[in-house]
Amino acid sequence: MKKFLAVLSTLVMLGTMASCGNSSEPSTNDSSDNKTTTAAKSDDGKEEEASSGPKTVGIAMPTKSLERWNRDGEYLKAQFEDAGYKVELKYSDNKTEQQNNDIQSMIADKVDLLLIAAIDGESLSQTLADAKGADIPVIAYDRLIMNTDAVSYYVSFDNYTVGKLQGEFVRDTLKLDSEKGPFNIEFTAGDPADNNAGFFFNGAYDALEEYIKSGVLKVPSGKTKFEQVATPTWSTDKAFENMQNTLASYYSNGTQLDVALCSNDSTALGVAKAIDSDYSGSNTPIVTGQDGDIANLQNIVDGKQSMTVYKNVSDEAGVTLDVAKAILSGQTPDGSLSLSAEAKYDTESYDNGVKVVPSYLLVPYVITKDSLDKLVDTGLYKWDSAHKYLE
User: Fold this and answer.
1) Which residues pair with 261 in a beta bridge?
2) Is the pTM of this model over 0.85?
3) What tens digit of pLDDT does each residue of 70-104 get?
4) Contacts of 242 (CB under 8 A, 6+ apart)
5) Pick from 311, 66, 298, 278: which is nearest to 190 by CA?
6) DSSP count for the chain of H helices, then E strands
7) Sheet containing 183-188: which strands, arranged edge to edge?
8) What span, in angstroms and rounded, lies between the C-alpha atoms of 326 and 228?
9) Among 270, 271, 311, 268, which residue's Cα sits nearest to residue 289?
10) CB-CB contact of 332 with 313 (8 Å)
């Protein structure tokens, strides 16, 4: 029996990770009575004791039904608590109304800072106006929050580069600069409510557009626009259904599928399943992904997925903590802020419709079957005793 992959991370040590696919997600609220005094550095570098006890950070995560948000939420909670802060952590079951209510609850609890991974970046404007009215700074985590001036900073990965890396992987694997093809490709994009999804798709499409225009790459379905290939809530089941329909409509007559370019791992999981069950071709298509989810790493080992773009959650959480600590100590973070991981300070790229949000963008990288040791190097994974699967 093959061992399934398991993350060796803070999640395991805390024993708090919820199982994927949990359909019932009451908000999780840490209301520890820890009274440890928080130390903060003033502008002259001296540590100051906060007389009113530890400050509280409210963390709003989208859902427990995707592995990555469990990982992010629990890791962030541990990081902030280790730094001496109190934490309220809430998951909102991918329901925008619930997330608004969860954030309102944290505002009522008078948290000192809000850290939000939005379910729908368009739906939080009024709630965040209330946060601004209560003088609570807001950090948008991983996903940009739109149409509000209440967002102080944005911490994420370079999302356009995520897609660009996927497109470049396809280019290099198929040797598009030298091979005539034609090769057939289909796209599966992400949630239209997630501002990042457009960046992922555009990065990938831009990297491949010249080959599509020249005919080296063909898209038999004709679906080359984000809106045509978007997947609501990044749903594995919806991605599976969409790829089943695409295979039945355009690949049932022996047409070969060479590439299934998927914007993330949850959609790649559905697409790989559809290829496994419904694709009649003799080749193994390239399948891309993003996140480094457990089941997808298993698929990479088993040859059902070709790559994933990995975003180290410990790095993202570390930089988020750096920015939050500066804000809570009265500083104004900028490009000179000392960071625990490599990140670019960007004041131009992320316009949320009201303001350009100052952003800290971390660097993602490609993982294939041949480079799984990079994940082991993060300390979040290890090889099993047979050195065959990660766990």
Assistant:
1) 187
2) no
3) 889 999 999 999 999 999 999 999 999 999 999 99
4) 188, 229, 231, 270
5) 66
6) 12, 15
7) 217-218, 183-188, 259-262, 286-287
8) 42
9) 268
10) no
